[in-house]
Amino acid sequence: MNISYFFSSPHGDVPVDSETLARPFMVEPMRNHPFMALGDFFHLVRLFLLDRAGPVLTSLLSRIWGRDIRLRDIDNVVIRYEKYGTLYQIVSAEIVSGSQKAKFAVSAALTTTAQENITLEYNLISYINTRTGLPYLPRVFCINSLDVEKDSRVENVALTLAEWFEGYHEWHFSKDEEGKDAVVLWDMGKGNRPASDLEAYAIIREASRILSLYYDVETSERIIPWHHGAGDFIVKTDSENVDVRLVTARGYEAFTSSDACDATNPLWGLLNFFIELTTKMRLDKLEGMGDTTWAGSTVVTAAIEGFVQAMKTKEEQGQCGAFTFADFITSAKALSQDEIEQSINSQLGEYQARDTSDFEVIKAHLKEHARDLASVLRHISP
Description:
Elements: E1 2-7, E2 14-15, H1 18-21, E3 24-28, E4 31-37, H2 38-52, H3 54-65, E5 76-84, E6 88-97, E7 100-109, H4 112-132, E8 140-150, E9 153-163, E10 169-175, E11 181-186, E12 193-194, H5 197-214, E13 221-223, E14 233-237, E15 242-246, E16 252-254, H6 266-280, E17 283-285, E18 292-294, H7 298-316, H8 325-333, H9 337-346, H10 348-354, H11 356-377
Parallel strand pairs: 1-5
Antiparallel strand pairs: 1-2, 3-4, 5-6, 6-7, 7-9, 8-9, 10-11, 10-14, 11-12, 13-16, 14-15, 17-18
Helix pairs in contact: 5-7, 6-7, 9-11, 10-11
């Protein structure tokens, strides 16, 4: 079995040599791990894949390839360090046997907070996948923890094995040369490129549709929090199609009466979700890492279109409970601009608690957003 290590980059794979493996392991930008080298991290991922997750991995490969697979049948393992996120290190693992290939995602959490979160997210994704049967979140296969021991010091690392969405990439709001809203696709194979207007519109529409499909009308449970700036949505696009996936779920929570809606009334819960969805869709971190940015009104139209598509699907599947989607549209269209503004204002506390920069940007655009929502709602038909 041949095992090779690489860094992923917009210009293709970057081989990792022995000199690089000896360098300190960076747990985040500009901060080295107290004692781990990069080689320690790569070896840890290798041990997780082929030892702790070995039986799970071979079972998955057997199912994918339609033949009995054992570790000795694997010819090559390519481990790519994809990125470090706010909480986790993200790695892809490509497994090769003969002419067959399969690719998986490995996430590693080092800090106590990160390990608590990765366990929560693993269990939550598994629960949501089972409950909804929807394909937009990754399938999760295994979670375990390993120790890295070096010079009498020990670091415990939690790792998960999950589905890898091949050909999908992060995207973020940006500004073009004229300062206008733009979307940039972070293509790690062909290099970053600006999305066309049609692609940008479709990305927002599909992200909105996905979140709306995961929304439970009867309980008002929804995936929350999420943020474009965290790279939560990824996209695969060609000349004809735009396909979007959601990489994680950090929470699945219902609205409460403190959210300015009657928690026992699913129609008002849906309205609250609609307001939250169309507001958050306009937020991102500029280039994924900078200041909070606010997108133009086209995002509102795209978000509402995705919401409507999802709700019509739910209605067809009998998931709208005691009311019809026409009932919702009638209630939403009856709202005045002031009432929409009050509803947005009632949700500001959550933004303030989670991200103060988002909170300040929403406050600054509150009246504008209420006006944009009211304008688009006037033209919606059930």
